[in-house]
Amino acid sequence: MYKNYIFDLYGTLIDIRTDEWSEEPWEEFAAWLTGNGMPYTGSEVKALYDNEVNRLTSVKTKYTSPEIDIIPVFEAICKKHRPDITDEEVWKAGEQFRIITTKMIKLYPNTKKVLTGLKKAGKKVYLLSNAQRVFTWQELVKTGIVDDFDDIFISSDEGCKKPDPEFYKKLINKHNLDITECIMIGNDSTSDIAGANAVGMDALYVRTAISPENDPVPDCRYVFEDGDIGHVLDI
């Protein structure tokens, strides 16, 4: 029935828990920065991080759901003490922050089975993720699914995020997709399902442990409450 399968990432294909709020990860990140010639305390680096994020998110854009790129935040943190730091080192700082703040990450049990099964069936498989490339790319590689997609769209690259219809349209237009042959698969009734509905695309909702709390049952073609992404192969 469908030729194009468009997946959300976190909470749909990857189970993850992060902690950017506790004191401990900020102290650990500050220690890493200090060891690389950028002396900070945890509270200092968190304050600068928050200020830079707030500055970037306050900028008006043409999108209804704008997205920032987090790299300039890490650039500001690093260049405060090392003005000549390279782009590669800034990127490494961003990756290290994500590693430190990630408490658990793993594929859901049927993720690999679904992705490889769709590819074997001749389907096109795309990723449409609200995420930061500096965080997400290393996780796609680590979990072994980076090569399972025909294309990967990450919101930090595009300046907008789900449920903004423009994010969906960027993928649709690039690959000249027929919406009637597409289905969006996600675990969030607002960003994943409402966004798909807004562009006239069918959707499959799977409720997982990290779906939004009290997430209402969405209006879409398929709803699975058991957290099993394996149902995708049955539709």
From TrEMBL:
It comes from the Bacteria. The keyword Chloroplast does not apply. Its cofactor is Mg(2+). Keywords: Hydrolase, Magnesium, Metal-binding. InterPro entries: HAD-like_hydrolase, HAD-like_sf, HAD-SF_hydro_IA, HAD-SF_hydro_IIIA, HAD_sf. One of its GO terms (biological process) is small molecule metabolic process. Pfam families: Hydrolase. GO terms for molecular function: metal ion binding; phosphatase activity. This is HAD hydrolase, family IA, variant 3. It comes from Eshraghiella crossota DSM 2876.
